[in-house]
């Protein structure tokens, strides 16, 4: 049987080990859209990324804030596959929220202060006439694959279970 601590540890490992997540949105007519985005997370279940304001997923979020997130390691074999799934809502950040969000994003993306100093961008690059916007998704529910047998199909198919998780737990996780 899988345990919640095992799923939490694996979820935290995935967050630390991956640079991209798959963002799922839906257009006003319900057409699904998935896109990889480079991301960072804080300890309050917020996931941050930047995108062009006219990108399909950005327009979708403006019309319908419901999103799904998927973080996974595509380098492992099928038998080792694991993913962290999230359901939540997203929005473009207001100018007043940009400094704090950018600090989180660039600190997580570039832990080395010298690299961060070169790579970090200023809030004005994500507001006004700029075509770029900074986004935040707040995840309300997490799920992951479980090694436990499927309740109907046994061990013939993998399945997901919802489990209690917060990125605050991932913050304390020591990769390695």
Automatic annotation (TrEMBL):
<dbReference type="InterPro" id="IPR011576">
    <property type="entry name" value="Pyridox_Oxase_N"/>
</dbReference>
<dbReference type="Pfam" id="PF01243">
    <property type="entry name" value="PNPOx_N"/>
</dbReference>
<dbReference type="GO" id="GO:0005829">
    <property type="term" value="C:cytosol"/>
</dbReference>
<feature type="domain" description="Pyridoxamine 5'-phosphate oxidase N-terminal">
    <location>
        <begin position="8"/>
        <end position="114"/>
    </location>
</feature>
<dbReference type="GO" id="GO:0016627">
    <property type="term" value="F:oxidoreductase activity, acting on the CH-CH group of donors"/>
</dbReference>
<keyword id="KW-0560">Oxidoreductase</keyword>
<dbReference type="InterPro" id="IPR052019">
    <property type="entry name" value="F420H2_bilvrd_red/Heme_oxyg"/>
</dbReference>
<dbReference type="InterPro" id="IPR012349">
    <property type="entry name" value="Split_barrel_FMN-bd"/>
</dbReference>
<dbReference type="GO" id="GO:0070967">
    <property type="term" value="F:coenzyme F420 binding"/>
</dbReference>
<protein>
    <recommendedName>
        <fullName>Pyridoxamine 5'-phosphate oxidase N-terminal domain-containing protein</fullName>
    </recommendedName>
</protein>
């Amino acid at each position: 049987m899988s345990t919640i601590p095992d799923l939490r540890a694996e979820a935290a490992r995935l967050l630390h080990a991956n640079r991209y997540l798959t963002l799922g949105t839906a257009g006003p007519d319900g057409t699904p859209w998935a896109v990889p985005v480079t991301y960072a997370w804080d300890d309050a279940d917020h996931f941050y990324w930047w995108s062009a304001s006219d990108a399909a997923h950005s327009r979708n979020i403006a019309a319908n804030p419901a999103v799904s997130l998927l973080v996974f390691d595509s380098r492992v074999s099928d038998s080792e596959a694991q993913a962290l799934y999230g359901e939540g809502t997203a929005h473009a950040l207001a100018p007043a929220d940009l400094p704090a969000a950018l600090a989180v994003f660039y600190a997580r993306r570039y832990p080395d202060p010298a690299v961060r100093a070169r790579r970090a961008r200023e809030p004005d690059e994500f507001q006004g006439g700029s075509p770029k916007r900074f986004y935040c998704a707040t995840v309300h529910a997490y799920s992951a694959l479980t090694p436990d047998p499927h309740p109907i199909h046994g061990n013939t198919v993998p399945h997901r279970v919802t489990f209690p998780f917060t990125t605050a737990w991932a913050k304390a996780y020591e990769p390695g």
